[in-house]
Structures are given as structure tokens and as C-alpha cells.
Amino acid sequence: MVITDGCSDRTPQIVDELSKKYKCIKHIHPGKRLGKGGAVIEGFKAATGKVIGFVDSDGSTPAEDLHLLLNELSGCDGVIASRWLSGSNVMKHEPPMRIVASRGFNFLIKLLFGLPFNDTQCGAKFFKNEVIKDIITDLGLTDWSFDVELLYVAHEKGYHLKEVPVKWEYKEGSKLNLRKVSINMLISIIGFRIKKSPLAPLIPNRLAYILYRKME
Question: Which of 45, 46, 50, 147 has CA atoms 20 to 30 A from the CA of 37?
């Protein structure tokens, strides 16, 4: 399944052509910008297999390591790829500022949520079907911080998630605005932390909407 989220290039047309040639490919093209989390949630809703997951389309995690993740899934409820474990093989690192932002974000996530993972943002995660179907109605973050909510909700419900070292390579050509994305993620994470705290009822509705952008 391929989700083309508000693409302005020929990606939707290319995926359409491939889906006609290869019947195993299902193409969902919302026609509007949903954000990373929104697109993944749409895929979750449509998925019916025993295993449900997602990977970044740039191939930063090689296909052979996806098989490794799937094999590890037999002993737990969900597996997430990691660039920051012993045994991980980062063949090409991100630019220094991205590394600083990544490690700083991970430190903040551990501080705010107590999650035990070293890399919440690596773009390869797989779960058993029943896990996703159980937590999907609890998911609402639509931006790049979606991964944190996904892992937090699954962890909070007692599911066993395993972090697995993988090969990973930074791909050139990213159009990601690091400053803008970092600010948006920080706002989302703070809002999500407040939503999950005893302070939630004290937050005005308008401020809560700004901090925690719930899916419509």
C-alpha cells in the first residue's frame, strides 16, 4: 500500500501506473495534505493483513532489514527500527544539525514520557494487526511527532515493543525544513504531554486545539 500525501509532483501518477501493473500495490491518494501522521493513520484504517506497518519511501532502511524486523515480530507485539543501538549500521550519517536535533528530541521524549526507546523517529515500524486496531482510535497527531504518540499509546496499553538495530543511510535531496518541523514537533509533543497529564482539564479549548491538532 502506498499513501501519496498531497504530492505536487508526478508521484501519484507513477504509483497509479505501478498499481495497474502489480496488483499487490494499493494506492491511496487523499488529494490533500494530511501530514505524515494523517497519511499513516489512513493507511492503518485500510490495512487488513496480519502485520501492519510503515516505512519511509526513500529506502533509507534497506529491504533486507525489513525482513529482519518482520522476523523479530514473532516474539513481541511490535518492532521499531533503530539507528542508535549497538549493532546498528549507519552507512551515511545525516548532516550534523539533524543529528543534534534528533538526539535532543529523543532526550526530550525520554524525559517527558519515560519511553525506553533510543530512536522513536526511524521510519520503519511493524505491529501485529490486533495492536493497531486496538489503538487506532487513540491516535490523533498528524505531523512528524506521530511516531511518539503511536509508541506511547501502545506502550501505555501494555504491548511489548522491541527496538531492533538496522542498517540505515541518509538520503540526499530531502526538502524537509528542519527549523519549521522541529518547532511544530516541539509544540505537538508539549501539547500531547499536557493532554496526558492531570492538567488537561485546565487547558482552554482553543489552546488545546493549537497544541494538540486532533484529526477531523
Answer: 50
Output DSSP code: residue 137. G
- Which of these, 62, 65, 1, 55, lies nearest to 28 by C-alpha position? 1
- For 193, counting Cβ atoms within 10 Å of its Cβ (0-12 exposed, 13-18 middle, 19+ buried), the class is buried
- For 74-84, write each residue's pLDDT tens digit: 999 999 999 99
Bridge partners, 127 (sequence order): 52, 78
Q: Which residues fall within 8 angstroms of residue 104, CB to CB, at 6 or more apart?
A: none
User: Each residue of 122-154: pLDDT tens digit?
Assistant: 989 999 999 999 999 999 888 889 999 999 999
- Maximum distance among all Cα pairs of the chain, rounded to whole angstroms: 54
Q: What is the pTM of this model?
A: 0.88
The closest of 83, 103, 104 to 169, measured between CA atoms, is 83
**What domains lie within the chain, and their CATH numbers?**
34-211 (3.90.550.10)
**What is the Cα–Cα distance from 129 to 201, expressed in whole angstroms?**
33
Give the CA distances from residue 9 to residues 2, 110, 177, 178, in Å, rounded to whole numbers and listed in that order. 15, 37, 18, 21
pLDDT at residue 216 is higher than 50: no
DSSP 3-state of 13 = helix
